[in-house]
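Record 1 of the preview.
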Amino acid sequence: MTIYLATDHAGFALKEAIKKYLLEQGHEVEDCGAHSLNKDDDYPDFIAKAAEAVSKDPASRGIIFGGSGQGEAMVANRFKGVRAAVFYAPEVHLADKEGEHIDPFEVVKIAREHNDANVLSVAARFIHDEQVALTAVKLFLETPFSNSERHVRRISKF
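->
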């Protein structure tokens, strides 16, 4: 499985750290940019390359980085077959409708199991510990899609 990486300046340092880790683990990695730190670059230029690659290679995965991860996910999700989910650090307070804390790692797990997410959009400005990002990446890569009939049915509708 090829893992496509992409970022702008906001996630550049984190992308480089994750890339190093993935290569050390023996993963096949394709870096779609940015290849240098440039505060004036634009995330769609790089994210679109990674998303298009994932769209054309259903067995692949993408990990994209940006400030909030939201714009990056929006760009990625414009490509047919791409299902990008956003990851925030555990320090970011996510809550359900009853106000109960939602573990962002659980969000990554459910995105894989229920939605067969094939792109992880990492909110780099909300992650202050590289280990947190590594944990999310490992979970994203290791969690299988459930293949439950209801999830397959729902995914087939978009």
